[in-house]
Structures are given as structure tokens and as C-alpha cells.
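W.,

You were right to be curious about this one. When I first looked at the sequence I had no strong expectations either way, so I just let the prediction run and decided to look at it fresh. Below is the sequence, 94 residues in total, followed by the output.
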Amino acid sequence: MDEREARLVAEKIVESLRAEEYQILVDRYLNKAEHTEVVGESGTGYQVEVEAFWDSIGPGNLRVMVAIDDGGWRALRPLSTDFIVAPDGSFVGE
């Protein structure tokens, strides 16, 4: 897997997710993994999983996680990134 390209694809996905409203992220991704395939500039297909879960017990800060692999051996250990968004739409830890 071309990690540089995979990271760029993941960053683009994270950028679009960070533009979403908190409640939309909760409704769409909370404890529900969504799988898509994205094609990188090289033509390589990447499998992307997006899922969210509470960062602590109960409703509150939401951790949104993006995992990406090319379907090869990296599927066992995908490249991943995440961010935490508070109910007021601010990003935690930034």
C-alpha cells in the first residue's frame, strides 16, 4: 500500500467529516461502521471504514475514526486517523 497516497485519501475524508454537524455525525456513524471504496490518484482502490463512538461514557464528545487499506495485507492493520468533536461543534484537543 502506498502509505503517502492512503494518508492523503484519509485526510481528505477527515476534512469532509469535520465539516459535518455534530448531530449528523452521531446519527450516521455512532456505533455503525460505514464502508466505502475510494480510488486514489494512482488508480489504487482503497477500502475506507468510518465509525464513531462516545469518547467517554454516555453522550458527549464523539470520536470519529477513519481506517483505510488497499485490500492487501494492510487490511489486517489499516492506516487510521481520528478526531474528537464536542456537542457544541468544537474539536477536542486542538
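Here's what jumped out at me. Strands lie at 34-39, 45-54, 62-69, 79-85. And, maybe more interesting for your project: The chain is about 25% helix and 35% strand.

Coffee later to discuss?

I.
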